[in-house]
Design goal:
mainly alpha; about 80% helix; 4 helices
Length: about 70
Amino acid sequence: MMTKLDIESSKTAGTPKWEGLSEIDQAIRDNRLTEYRINKAWADPWSRRLTVGVTVVIAVGFSYLIGSSLGLW
């Protein structure tokens, strides 16, 4: 025979804690999910390299177009 206290403690002990998702949940509550995603992406070395690479390619492309429209080459 289990007491009510034993039943409640077994329910709380059986539920898994999602430690990794608690930060995302807090970010959603604070309405800063975009900032969270950018920070997580910037922390990843491959994502950081990809972001910097794409930004450089876009900057070079725009520089070429501006230079060509001004008659520099």
